[in-house]
Write a structure and sequence with these properties.
2% strand, 2 strands, elongated, two-stranded antiparallel ribbon, mainly alpha
Length: 259
């Protein structure tokens, strides 16, 4: 009896919470507004003889695309991107996306579908972290994305996220007071070491994931000791966010601009 009462109370609380959300807020939160806007734009651009049938086919294709993106996303997360089997998963994910029909009735991976997948892969990043990468690797909505571009874009996304984690780890080793700040001079020295490590990579994203780990604890300690002996500690500090942003810029220089 108590469980039923609790369930009823929870349901009433949810219904009450829903009333605080306006219809407009609901449409924006669920992405419906953007989808309808895109559909209206296509109708205006194409001016089909039967707009209703056009809309029905558009949303049917959209539902198919969403399902395909989710399936491709699942394939890409099966194993870490440094594993040999990931290359097979890349091919499988690409084939899932390119075999579905687009709005023009033709098969092939469009930039819009690819961009949606990239956005899904970047959903754990905040806007400040994701935007610089997406501006580099996103494609034009209506262009056909070939496998080499798909491979480079997906790998760059995974490598970028790994690299940011490595940068956070490096800063934590420099943060001797554990207050989220580290000596600015030491940070700049380590960032320079990181830049040199990245510049020695082959250009393939897979080789970049080892760049941060190239700075072993022993190497890191030696660099820190040399810097302190040469210049001593500075009065300025660098936050972990500043350090990660600087590290991200170093990596982004190695990623080609797809546009």
């Amino acid at each position: 009896m108590a469980e039923k009462k609790a369930s009823k109370t929870t349901l009433l609380e949810e219904l009450k919470a829903d009333k605080t959300e306006t219809p407009l807020d609901f449409l924006f939160r669920t992405g419906v507004t953007n989808e309808i806007r895109d559909a209206m734009t296509l109708i205006i651009e194409n001016r089909p003889e039967d707009p209703i049938s056009f809309l029905a086919e558009y949303f049917d294709n959209h539902a198919s695309t969403t399902t395909a993106i989710m399936r491709a996303h699942q394939k890409l997360l099966l194993v870490h991107h440094s594993q040999p089997s990931f290359q097979n998963n890349l091919v499988l994910a690409y084939n899932i996306l390119r075999q579905r029909k687009n709005n023009n009735g033709l098969k092939g991976l469009t930039g819009k579908t690819y961009n949606d997948l990239v956005a899904m892969l970047c959903r754990d990043l905040n806007v400040t972290e994701a935007d610089p990468l997406q501006k580099k690797i996103m494609c034009l909505s209506h262009e056909v994305v070939r496998f080499p571009v798909f491979r480079l874009g997906v790998l760059s996304t995974f490598v970028y996220q790994d690299f940011l984690k490595q940068a956070e780890s490096l800063h934590s080793e420099l943060d001797l007071t554990e207050r989220g700040k580290a000596d600015r001079h030491l940070c700049e020295v380590i960032l320079n070491e990181l830049k040199q490590a990245v510049s020695k990579t082959t250009g393939d994203p897979i080789s970049v994931i080892h760049a941060g780990s190239m700075l072993s604890s022993q190497r890191l300690n030696n660099v820190m000791a040399e810097a302190l002996m040469k210049n001593g500690a500075s009065n300025e500090t660098m936050t972990v966010d500043e350090f990660v942003v600087s590290a991200a810029e170093i990596l982004l220089e190695q990623i080609p601009d797809f546009r």
